[in-house]
Amino acid sequence: MKRIADSTVRRLSLYLRFLEEFEEAGLTTVSSEELAARGGTTSAQVRKDLSFFGSFGKRGLGYSVNELTQRMRRILGLDRDWRIIIVGVGKIGAALAQYEGFRQRGFRVVALYDSDPGKVGRQIDGLTVRATDDLAEDNRERPVDIAVIAVPAEAAQRVVDQVIGAGIIGIMSFAPIQLHVPAEVTLNTVNMAMELERLSFALSNRE
Amino acid sequence: MKRIADSTVRRLSLYLRFLEEFEEAGLTTVSSEELAARGGTTSAQVRKDLSFFGSFGKRGLGYSVNELTQRMRRILGLDRDWRIIIVGVGKIGAALAQYEGFRQRGFRVVALYDSDPGKVGRQIDGLTVRATDDLAEDNRERPVDIAVIAVPAEAAQRVVDQVIGAGIIGIMSFAPIQLHVPAEVTLNTVNMAMELERLSFALSNRE
Predict the structure, then answer these.
(1) Closest residue of B to A92, CA-based?
(2) pTM of structure
């Protein structure tokens, strides 16, 4: 498959959300124009985005909402459960552990870790916080798919190295720092301050 | 100014971070190749990104780290303070209220709001939680720049309408729902589950 741009994947995620709304509203077919209108984009863009993944829909008849929903889920890897762990149960980590949106999408938080002995053993949302040093052994026994990193910037690279050493190849980081990972590891960084910068940029550069 | 793509703004934010690291390391000049290597992109991309904002650097001499840092800050709107409020002090909202990264970038959380009478009056990080209904009057007295929305999905559109009604035109939303805002309002949505979907997509579509 061709390399898909990040912005395309973001739009696919949005399309899936719209499709689910359409499904809930009882619609059975949808046109690329309708999807485009809902997402603030063009129908040509919608067709181009979908064309990466083979042929969808029938000319003039639009897409079957049900079929397209299923295929979007499969494309995004949402036709299965993902076992995720959260490393670092400070404020952000603890909030993420209880985030409803993850469960709804099949992202199951199966374990929490922290290196602070004062936090190890604590209960959060039905899970007992474990020591980060137990990660490698835990992952040998019951492998997980994704590690969410919610530790301070200065600890992040060390923790990420530990996570990778334990054999986990999917990483989502909330640490406000650029991390280095080997090519076989997939890393997605969410930086809250950078999200605010997108807004300060837009507000500063208004017409 | 031309419409700048979101992916460009994200890269500018990254360049600024690298420049700050270079500055801390005592470097005085940097080439587009060095910036590109640090950011996993190409030097042509770096030059193209920067060219949107006028001419930088001297051919063959690279960029002045100090000058480029200052101009990046100005471009991103970081040469000033931004007054932000957080609406909804559940787990995510309370975590954001205490997020260090905001303050470091000049995003000052000046007030917290919640519509739950059980939360109004509570102290979080030195701020007293106020009633969401006070927002309009508060904003008349001391206007803010950005409202961060951290309420449940089903309340989000109502709260956003209230925020816009109060005269706030910059919105960052963490609610997992598509919001509708008038053209003069700048909205940035951060959806945690969508961030995980970018990862499940990448992990599902590995070579």
Answers:
(1) B95
(2) 0.79
